[in-house]
């Protein structure tokens, strides 16, 4: 391949890399913003088990992280407010509708606390399998989880969700795209579902991975907020933005629900995380380039699995969930022997593994190891 000419954009990314010292990954972008190559330093196993984005943080976020040192002696109150207003602009909602949390995990737990406070010993309806942070926390709060198996295509079965709702239900959790399956529910189906859920039930739509869907703007439930007083939509800076360690997420809800949820926050986000998130939100070029790289490599992985005849879910996240054909612990062991850490077992899917899309050479390594690890 002819090395691409040095453009202003590439020079910027290159100088940011030099300024900030070793990157977890080295990325070369082409003029159209696509990733030409990406490599990582060779220490420890390659982590393809946590659905993180190793392309991040963006160059602007890296600079903001360094600059945030000066803000460390201060509480982050004012900068949280700035981020809240920027998110509101970005999402086209009122700032009073936005909650900034220490990761979307904190916001999931706040929704659990609100449900437990509204109806002691109530019920939460959630898919099986799904991201377990809220269901597990809800159980610890004394709620009963009513699990609803995903359908034959590994999607949330929203009709079955409606049937599972009782007079004891206070919370419904829809993870869209779902973790670990990566599947999505269509926006019109979700809209009909949200309209059909009885008034007192809070519906949490977790959109941690929405940026990796085909048309993120059309996949989001934010447009439903106008007609759904009990809906909360959650987002995170841990995935596309590559800031998982800095713990920033946000929720959008009708203002009165946002106020009730906000009252249950436990900790203020930290100033470095807020500075990084604010810078990252505006680094559109980087976000677009990494999104494209991840979606391309997801297509590559799904194509390879199809050629190998392995059943898989249709993932719209930065990960792929597929049937290894053997107990998943054995598959994990084989992959680890090749220097790759891949995902664990999920309820009802004893032979399936979830593999996160890493940087390009990590995906190459995974694809090279795959055929051997599938054989028992
Ligand atoms: C679906 C889903 N929601 C929320 C989270 C939590 O993310 P955060 O880092 O924002 O707490 C995760 C993390 O993996 C996730 O998969």
Would you write up a description of this structure?
By secondary structure, the protein is of the alpha/beta class. It has two domains: 8-57 and 284-374, Alpha-Beta Complex (Aspartate Aminotransferase, domain 1); 65-281, Type I PLP-dependent aspartate aminotransferase-like (Major domain) (Aspartate Aminotransferase, domain 2), CATH 3.40.640.10. Helices cover 40% and strands 17% of the residues. It is built from 13 helices and 13 strands. The chain has helices at 8-20, 59-67, 77-91, 104-118, 133-140, 158-164, 187-196, 216-219, 255-262, 271-281, 284-307, 328-337, 360-374, and strands at 26-29, 35-39, 46-48, 98-101, 123-128, 144-149, 169-175, 202-206, 231-236, 249-252, 319-323, 340-342, 352-356. Strands 4-10-9-8-7-5-6 form a seven-stranded mixed beta sheet, sandwiched between helices. Strand 5 (123-128), helix 5 and strand 6 form a beta-alpha-beta unit. Helix 2 (59-67) runs antiparallel to helix 10, helix 4 (104-118) runs parallel beside helix 5 (133-140) and helix 12 packs across helix 13. The two termini are 38 Å apart. The chain binds pyridoxal-5'-phosphate.
């Amino acid at each position: 391949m002819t090395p691409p000419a040095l453009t202003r954009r590439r020079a910027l990314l290159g100088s940011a890399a030099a300024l900030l010292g070793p990157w977890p990954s080295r990325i070369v972008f082409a003029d159209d913003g696509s990733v030409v190559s990406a490599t990582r330093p060779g220490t420890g196993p390659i982590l393809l088990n946590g659905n993180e984005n190793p392309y991040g943080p963006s160059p602007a976020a890296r600079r903001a992280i360094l600059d945030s040192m000066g803000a460390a002696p201060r509480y982050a109150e004012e900068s949280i407010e700035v981020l809240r207003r920027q998110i509101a602009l970005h999402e086209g909602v009122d700032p009073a509708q936005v909650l900034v949390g220490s990761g979307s995990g904190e916001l999931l737990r706040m929704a659990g606390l609100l449900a437990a406070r509204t109806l002691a010993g109530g019920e939460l309806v959630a898919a099986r399998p799904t991201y377990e942070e809220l269901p597990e926390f809800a159980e610890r709060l004394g709620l009963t989880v009513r699990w609803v198996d995903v359908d034959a295509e590994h999607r949330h079965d929203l009709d079955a969700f409606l049937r599972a709702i009782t007079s004891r239900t206070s919370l419904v959790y829809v993870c869209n795209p779902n973790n670990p399956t990566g599947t999505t529910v269509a926006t019109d189906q979700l809209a009909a579902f949200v309209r059909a859920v009885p008034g007192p039930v809070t519906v949490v739509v977790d959109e941690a991975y929405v940026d990796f869907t085909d048309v993120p703007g059309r996949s989001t439930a934010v447009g439903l907020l106008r007609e759904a007083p009990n809906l909360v939509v959650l987002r995170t800076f841990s995935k596309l933005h590559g800031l998982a360690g800095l713990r920033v997420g946000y929720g959008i809800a009708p203002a009165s629900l946002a106020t009730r949820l906000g009252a249950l926050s436990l900790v203020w986000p930290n100033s470095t995380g807020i500075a990084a998130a604010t810078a990252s939100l505006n680094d559109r070029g980087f976000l677009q380039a990494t999104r494209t790289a991840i979606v391309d490599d997801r297509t590559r992985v799904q194509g390879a699995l199809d050629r190998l005849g392995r059943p898989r879910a249709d993932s719209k996240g930065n990960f792929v969930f597929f049937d290894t054909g053997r107990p998943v612990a054995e598959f994990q062991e084989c992959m680890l022997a090749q220097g790759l850490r891949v995902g664990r077992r999920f309820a009802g899917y004893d032979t399936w593994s979830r593999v996160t899309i890493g940087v390009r050479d990590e995906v190459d390594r995974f694809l090279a190891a795959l055929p051997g690890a599938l054989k028992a």
